[in-house]
């Protein structure tokens, strides 16, 4: 847990240093991106059976929705928040395996400049430490990705900033309208 707390302290120091540098070099890109990552598997995907009803005065002042819905299976939300900028990187996948995690890492890789080191705070899920993930990481430049693992029994709200925001992102990412 001490390593995770050190990373959060590093974020505070980097933000403080960035505030003083902004006046000197406003276009300077950060040399490190620190991402707090978490996943939420088993989210029910639901769709409505009828379109929403527009508001009607004296009946219902807001949009009305039918109580019936169609189940579309379950999904997994993979999300990371950049602790320096607040940018959320998220994807909704049918499953959460090494393959999907590596795809998430590829999207992170594409989102940041090649010279930026990407430090990720994450749990010890099997997809994060699998052979497939390790093989992909060895193909990346030295120092591009660094994983900081949370303790196995740490509560989610302490170990990851994403856990506290997953319900908001989950409701946004899985809301579906009828095809």
Describe this structure in words.
It is extended, with a radius of gyration of 20 Å. Strands 1, 2, 3, 4, 5 and 6 form a six-stranded mixed sheet that branches. It is 34% helix and 28% strand. The longest helix has 21 residues, at 2-22. The mean pLDDT is 81. β4 (117-122), α3 and β5 form a beta-alpha-beta unit. It is α/β, with parallel strands linked by helices and 179 residues long.
Could you provide a short overview of the structure?
With 179 residues, the protein is an alpha/beta fold.
Q: Could you outline the blueprint of secondary structure elements for this entry?
A:
Layout: H1 2-22, E1 32-48, E2 69-82, E3 88-93, H2 98-111, E4 117-122, H3 131-138, E5 145-149, H4 156-159, H5 161-174, E6 175-176
Parallel strand pairs: 1-4, 1-6, 4-5
Antiparallel strand pairs: 1-2, 2-3
